[in-house]
Structures are given as C-alpha cells and as structure tokens.
Design a protein that fits this description.
170 residues, two-stranded antiparallel ribbon, globular
Length: 170
C-alpha cells in the first residue's frame, strides 16, 4: 500500500516527534546557587591564575610571578580551563532563568568569561608570560564588569567582598 505524499510526510513527522519525546531532556543539578559556583569554582581558580602573572616588589627587589616549572605552567592551564568551563556552568538554563530572562548581559559576561579564560589557557600552553599577563588582564576586566552589575549592587552592609587569597612566597 502506497501512502499519499502528504500523509507519508505527516507519518514521518509524527515518528520524529515520538522519537524526540522518548529521550528525556538533559537534567542539570543546579542545587549550587550561582553565588556558590562563583565562590567555590570561579573565584579560587581565577585568583590562583592571576597570582601566576605579573610581578611584585618588596624590600629585596622585584619578583616575577610567572610560572617557572612545567608543573606551574600546567597548573595555570588547569586554572584557566576551570574558569572557561565555569562560564558554561553560568549558562545552564536553570541558572539563567533565576535572573531576569530578558537580561542579555549575563549571557554576554558568561560567554566572555569562557572566551577570555581560553585566551589565558592558550597563553599558558604557549608558555608566554606576557600573553598570559595581558589575557589575564582582559579576563579580569570581564569579571569586574560583571561584578559591578550583579555582585556589588546586591551586597548587604554586613557582606564584604571576598578578598583574594595571598600567595605565600616564603
């Protein structure tokens, strides 16, 4: 028996819908609030990454913070990768829905977070301390811009911004 073309098309479409419905949608566990994702994933990795670039001066002179060993360079790559993937965590639909869904800045900032962190990762892969410093600065600019909009305005009087951990260079 041969079906009419329009009936065959309708039948194929119905099968496609049934096949799509049979696959459960991906479920994300978003029990960690965005504030916790920032505090436990983004901030520690970003701060550690920034502590690997630039220099600081004390009474004994100027100290370069750039990695010197392969282990330090690899740690920088890993930190940059964590920050890059954290941008994706911030784009999980449930986390975006918790904000004003008409607000496209959140998506812009999270996307830029990933892109700029990937630039830092590339610089660490290339073992290029100047590019690591420059791209780390551009990553920092994204973080500051996002925090100006989403973090600072919502601080309570008793909340203090989390201070960056200091590097121990004993």
């Amino acid at each position: 028996m041969r079906l009419a073309p329009s009936l065959a098309t309708l039948f194929a479409a119905a099968l496609s819908v049934l096949a799509a419905c049979s696959k459960p949608p991906t479920q994300f566990d978003t029990s960690l609030e965005t504030k916790e994702v920032m505090a436990h994933i983004v901030n520690p990795s970003a701060v550690a990454l920034w502590n690997r670039a630039g220099d600081w001066t004390d009474e004994s002179g100027i100290h370069d913070l750039a990695p010197i060993s392969e282990d330090e360079w690899f740690a920088g790559e890993s930190e940059a990768a964590v920050v890059a993937e954290a941008g994706n965590l911030l784009l999980i639909p449930e986390r975006v829905r918790r904000l004003n869904t008409k607000d496209t800045d959140w998506i812009k900032f999270a996307t830029l977070l990933s892109a700029r962190a990937n630039d830092v990762k590339k610089a660490t892969e290339d073992r290029n301390k100047e590019a690591m410093f420059d791209s780390g600065g551009k990553l920092y600019e994204v973080c500051v811009s996002c925090h100006e909009k989403y973090y600072i305005p919502f601080l309570k009087d008793d909340d203090e911004p989390t201070a960056a951990p200091r590097r121990n260079d004993d």
